[in-house]
Design a protein that fits this description.
The protein is built from 19 helices and 9 strands. It has 476 residues and is mostly helical. The protein has 2 domains: 100 residues, uronate isomerase, domain 2, chain A (Orthogonal Bundle); 307 residues, TIM Barrel, CATH 3.20.20.
């Protein structure tokens, strides 16, 4: 551990942090946690660019690595009155001094992260990755920045070295259907890289006929697939073509996020009619929703055929603040959760494919009310259904604990996905998985303390949650 300043608050992280405060449960939780602490990281859904690992270039500066891509950090700083442009979001030519000033803003607003998982992640990054023991503050900002920048310039802090150091066993990216996946191919052909990095098929934009750019997207889909997308049948064939390309390049899943969870088929004639309206830009909003739900049904049908795991995380109001979206683009922290209904919405899909041999679906939600009411009963019946663990807004200690209490009595432990970090912040991956392991260890310790599990069963279950479940849920 490196001490930078002679004064100021120190980061002295308690090894039992996030474990139960109850004196009777903490030793049990500690033993369970220690049994999984160093297990490999399985990360089947995230947003770290494959190019980082393919090129293996040094990271340029602390801000572009720790702040700019992390919408969790940016969101709370923006709420505190800091412009996203000051944090490097959507900025080109961000100068070294601007980068340093953004880091100063983070440090001077360190108090806004109290009580949040963001603080846990950042503290873990500073101590476990960079070996620094000084808490961020106005006085410490420049010295912290310089210490981190100096380490980033060294070989042990290049992307591939960190991949190995983090103990990542599998890492999935998120990719557009028209992507050429050249960086994934580069990694797969490189004998010096021993990790596994897989693309994820993310076709959302191509399933939204009401988008103003939908026609251009569909034309691009046709050009890349080499198929005519002038008809609905052509669109379906082009999607099948690109899914096959992704699977041939290592993809294990497709990822979908729309305004609702409804997945409903249409007969061929009606689908062609609505598709023609969309191509002419005369489709209504209601008709566009109907067509999108039919397109999702086709994605499910394809999943039953090609075996890619279907993951769904509906009901998020994207780009809630229009001026910020127009200036900075998407994925800046302005996506806000909404209520969602699953039971009726996915019934047509599960009636058609829920017991098919190759079909598998993982349902994620930020609407916690759906866990015990809908998702646990669905996963407790359908062999194809897994419940996605808390992620995004609710990958936080209390929400994780509520999740286990909500779903386990109905669906058990085996029907959940394993932790999903879903992050663009590469260095936060080990901290996020560590937090999940600590919270699950605390939950299991409570069950042992109540004599609902033996300690051996709890230790075995903890390992399954870390490694076994994600491998089953994503067919790894």
């Amino acid at each position: 551990m490196t001490t930078l300043l002679t004064s100021g608050d120190r980061l002295d992280l308690n090894p039992d942090r996030m474990l139960p405060a109850d004196a009777g449960l903490r030793p049990l939780a500690r033993e369970i946690y220690e049994s999984v602490r160093q297990l490999p990281i399985v990360s089947p859904h995230g947003h770290v660019p494959a190019q980082w690992l393919a090129d293996d270039e040094p990271f340029s500066d602390p801000t572009s690595l720790l702040i700019t891509p992390d919408h969790y950090v940016n969101r709370l700083l923006h709420a505190s009155g800091i412009g996203l442009d000051k944090l490097g979001v959507a900025q080109t030519g961000f100068t070294p001094e601007q980068s340093r000033e953004a880091f100063r803003l983070l440090c001077s607003h360190w108090h806004v992260f109290r009580g949040t998982p963001i603080r846990f992640w950042l503290e873990s990054e500073l101590t476990d990755i960079f070996g620094l023991d000084v808490a961020p503050s106005t006085d410490a900002a420049d010295e912290l920045y310089d210490a981190i920048a100096a380490k980033l310039a060294t070989p042990p802090f290049r992307p591939r070295a960190l991949y190995d150091r983090f103990g990542i066993d599998f890492l999935a990216t998120t990719d557009d259907p028209c992507d050429d996946l050249v960086h994934h191919q580069q990694l797969a052909a490189d004998p010096t890289f021993t990790g596994q990095v897989a693309p994820t098929f993310r076709p959302d934009r191509y399933l939204e006929p009401a988008r103003t750019d939908w026609n251009a997207l569909v034309d691009r889909l046709g050009a890349v697939s080499g198929l005519d997308t002038g008809t609905y049948a052509g669109w379906v064939a082009a999607m099948e073509n690109r899914r096959a390309f992704f699977k041939a390049n290592g993809a294990v899943s497709s990822d979908h996020s729309h305004a609702d969870a409804r997945v409903e088929p249409l007969d061929a004639a009606e689908a062609e009619r609505l598709y023609a309206l969309a191509r002419r830009r005369t489709i209504t909003t209601t008709e566009a929703d109907t067509l999108r739900r039919a397109m999702m049904f086709e994605q499910a049908r394809m999943a039953a055929d090609d075996g890619l795991v279907l993951t769904m995380h509906p009901a998020v109001y994207r780009n809630h603040h229009t001026p910020s979206f127009e200036r900075f683009g998407s994925d800046i922290g302005a996506d806000i959760p909404m209520q969602v209904e699953f039971t009726r919405a996915v019934q047509p899909m599960l009636a058609a494919f829920g017991t098919s041999a190759y079909f598998q679906v993982v349902f994620f939600t930020i609407d916690e009310t759906a866990y015990s009411r809908e998702l646990a009963p669905l996963a407790g019946f359908y062999p194809s259904v897994y419940i996605g663990v808390p992620w995004w807004f609710i990958d936080a200690p209390d929400a994780m604990a509520r999740f286990r209490a909500s779903v386990t009595e109905t669906a058990g432990f085996t029907r959940t996905s394993g932790f999903i970090d879903d992050t663009r912040a590469y260095l936060s991956i080990p901290a996020r998985h560590d937090l999940s392991r600590r919270i699950d260890s605390g939950h299991l310790a409570r069950l042992v303390g109540e004599h609902r599990l033996t300690l051996d069963e709890a230790i075995e279950t903890a390992a399954e949650l870390v490694v076994g479940n994600p491998r089953r849920a994503f067919k790894l």
